[in-house]
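We keep the chain:
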Amino acid sequence: MTRPFRLPWAGPLPLTLALAGLLALIQQQLLLRQPPRLERLTPVAASSGPAALQARFSRPMDPASLQAASSLAPPLAHRWLGDGDTLLLNLSPDQRISSPLLLELAGRDRRGLALPPQRWQWDPRPRLLAVVPAGSGEQLQVREHDGRWRPISPVWPRITMVEPLGGGEAVAVVSRSETGRFRVWRLPLRQQPLRPLGRGRPAAPAPVQAGAPEPIGAGEMVFAHISGNRRGDLLVQAGGEQPDQVSISLWPARGGPRVLPLEASGALRLLPEGGALVVPEIDGLSLRDLPPRPERRQTLPGSRDLSSFCPRAGRALLVRHWPDFRRSLELVEPGVAPRQLWLGPQALAATACSRGGERIWALLIEGVGRPALTLVSLDRRGSVLASRRLAGWELEPGTGLSYDPTSDRLALVLRPLGNRPGAPPAAPRAVLIEASSLTLQPLPQEALQAIWLPAG
């Protein structure tokens, strides 16, 4: 009997492969016709303006169409930066944010297909975080945008250091017991700076929610110093009873702790953007890369102290000490020698800066007994923009300046000077200062430390 003739591609396996290829081609064509999707929208640290958002899409987008079709209310100037499927919405500098923003997101991808319109409520304003007296101890509290204060931590006998971690996802705290021993804690926080709205009305800002404090390290220490960065990493310098019990450990945002074989002559500081740290040494300052980067060390000689970091990566303010007991303020930038901005006999108690050092604030102390306190504003060339004598106030020891670009205000802790000799000292207070006019706004809340808490 003659067997039926069959084509060579008509067998089960070739036919299955052909159908699979046809199905893949149909799926590819369907995907090419699908509109782009917003996969992720997250707040990120801004270096050139008051706030920024990072948007990731399913397809490469046309930034010009996003710029034309999207909007902000109130109508703040902004730009879409980048290329491809991940873009940055950056607010232009020198704009104040006094309320939550409404983001209407729309645009087209490179194929011309429209992104489904979306509405988001975005509140990039930081809250004021303060250490306040509570009962027989001290407690962390935040000042909400409506002016109310809320406790977010237990009461410890003493709080010596506070350091925000990441974009406000947590706060690191150093507490001191009644016996003088120190302990490091990580206090997780939950904030909602960004919420999808759909067709609903804007909601009232949600308050900060704090979790239970998590102990960092093996127990109590003779001393402890901490430093954090925007990634959420925490550096802990701690010591025990003996000199050989001093340790330097890095607690990454993800993963276990790592002991760093470093020696330092003072407090170490993590770079805000991560990846490296500043190490004080006998003959100057050194910048060292952290694992997994290859080991690298850059040294800046001279009697210098790190005062503060600027928002833009690689910029910082240094205090240099001269043999004639004068001090100078320097702006350091990548690839160039430090630039001297100010020189004088006064003590530089605290500094802060905006963006890459376009504006700089320095708190000067002069005299003994009842030293005079002066706040100076400088530009990046060292020219004086404004100066104000803070008569009737003194700086609370161990505190500094903290700058908020969304409101263009500085935060610090000042203590009113008493007029009667021998009278008990007045309680220190959190004070807000307009960064341009240097006008003071003392808050009624008693505070021992104050710093801006990023919105998340």
